[in-house]
Write a structure and sequence with these properties.
Elements: H1 2-21, E1 39-43, E2 49-54, E3 58-62, E4 83-86, E5 92-93, E6 113-116, E7 119-123, E8 128-132, E9 138-141, E10 146-148
Antiparallel strand pairs: 1-2, 2-3, 3-4, 4-5, 6-7, 7-8, 8-9, 9-10
C-alpha cells in the first residue's frame, strides 16, 4: 500500500512538474486602438442605419431618408441609392442586391467608433461617419442628408 502511494505521488509530482515547465498559452493581445475589430457590423442607436466594417471596406445602409440619391447608373441591375461604401478610393453609392440593415449587429453608441485596418466609422448624434484614415476618403450618412468625399 505504501509503495502504491509513493508511486502515485511520484506520478502526480511528474505531471505537475511537466505542467509547470510547459509554457502557458499566450493570452490574446488587446488591440492597439480602442474599438479595433477585424470585421463586424453595428447599428446606429436610431435603428435606421446599419453598417458593416472590414479592413478593406466600410458599408452603411439606410432604411428611411428624406433625400434623393443620384440617378441609378445604367449598368446597375440591382437596388441603388440606399447603401454607401468607402475603401481606398472615393466613397460612393453601392449597387447592391442585399442589405446589412438586418444583420448589422450591436448598437454603436453616439461618440463611439469602430475601426478595422485603415477604415473607421464613428456614431454621431445626427449621422454615421465612415472614412479611410489614410486616404482621407469617406462619407456621412443620415436621414436628412449624405455627403461623399
Amino acid at each position: 500500500m505504501r509503495r502504491l502511494r509513493t508511486a502515485g505521488a511520484a506520478i502526480l509530482l511528474a505531471a505537475l512538474t511537466t505542467a509547470c515547465a510547459s509554457p502557458a498559452p499566450e493570452a490574446p493581445q488587446a488591440s492597439a486602438a480602442m474599438g479595433d475589430a477585424p470585421s463586424g457590423g453595428f447599428t446606429m442607436p436610431s435603428g435606421n442605419i446599419g453598417c458593416y466594417l472590414t479592413a478593406t471596406q466600410a458599408r452603411c445602409d439606410i432604411n428611411r431618408k428624406s433625400w434623393l440619391p443620384p440617378s441609378k447608373p445604367p449598368d446597375c441591375d440591382l437596388a441603388y441609392g440606399f447603401a454607401l461604401t468607402v475603401a481606398d478610393a472615393d466613397a460612393s453609392f453601392l449597387c447592391a442586391g442585399d442589405s446589412v440593415l438586418q444583420s448589422a449587429g450591436p448598437i454603436l453608441g453616439y461618440g463611439q467608433s469602430r475601426q478595422a485596418g485603415n477604415l473607421r466609422c464613428t456614431s454621431e448624434p445626427k449621422a454615421v461617419k465612415c472614412e479611410n484614415v489614410v486616404s482621407g476618403h469617406g462619407f456621412t450618412l443620415a436621414r436628412e442628408q449624405y455627403d461623399l468625399w
